[in-house]
């Protein structure tokens, strides 16, 4: 899981929202997730991610990419494809993927200067 928020990305950019319900047990999930984090950072146009998981196994990971080419490059990585197959076989009860173009974005940080713009 990420312990930071991704902010300050100038739109337009794309998000890939991966929502999943895990099976019980790790069976190499953590190790593979760490490898995927490392590999995605090699993709030109990858901008960062945010992730959270409930104790019951529901998880949401949002990946940020500059453009659709960056998403396609990540989707075509053989290691990512292998992890996807293993996920369907072992790690997930179900999942969904949503890809969206972000045209507006703003953030807030306590102690920051000013309020977010309503644009």
Automatic annotation (TrEMBL):
It comes from Streptomyces melanogenes. Keywords: Monooxygenase, Oxidoreductase. Signal peptide: none annotated. Residues 33-85 form the ABM domain. This is Antibiotic biosynthesis monooxygenase. One of its GO terms (molecular function) is monooxygenase activity.
